[in-house]
User: What shape does this take?
Amino acid sequence: AQKITQTQPGMFVQEKEAVTLDCTYDTSDQSYGLFWYKQPSSGEMIFLIYQGSYDEQNATEGRYSLNFQKARKSANLVISASQLGDSAMYFCAMRDANTGNQFYFGTGTSLTVIP
Amino acid sequence: DTEVTQTPKHLVMGMTNKKSLKCEQHMGHRAMYWYKQKAKKPPELMFVYSYEKLSINESVPSRFSPECPNSSLLNLHLHALQPEDSALYLCASSLPVQGGPMDSPLHFGNGTRLTVT
Assistant: This one.
């Protein structure tokens, strides 16, 4: 069964606008962590933001924030004030207590920022 | 600068060659990973080492042989590869989870772009 689902293969956003990238997850564990990564065309995978299953506040890191809705099992990434350099693939990932060291990745969303 | 260093950045090899990919980290992470990634696809897990012991092998063909000589180094030995093995190979490290918190992310190297001719 798919542990992480990203339903948006491609997204476009106007420069300086906000954009939401969707991620839903599936786990029966109470303890798990959710991660977002950015991968520009150059190939490096850049860690952006983390949300823990016990965190009561939504995570924020600069222009990145996570809209965490535990009951819906969703962890959407919000990028505010989009910049041209935000154009990249974005992957949602999860690790849980059952599988520990294994990370599950979604299929990714390709974001294009339009000037 | 990335804290996980991979060499070489690019590699072209024939199907009869033997080559090795190298990965080094000095973050004290005791879980190290090899991923294979095709263009516009998510990384596919190949191997996980935890405390220098192979803990996960995702049914990878034997032409890929991992090695973890110590807590900082991870190698991937390649032999008799096929053209379909051409991909970006990513090394990553993390704090291993032993019933603890889940907040240690994967730290990736910049990858090796492998082309098999």
About this structure: Chain B touches chain A at residues 2, 31, 33, 40-43, 45, 48, 50, 55-56, 88, 90, 92, 94, 96-99, 101-103, 105-111, 113 (CB under 8 Å). Chain B has no helices and eleven strands. Chain B has a mean pLDDT of 92.
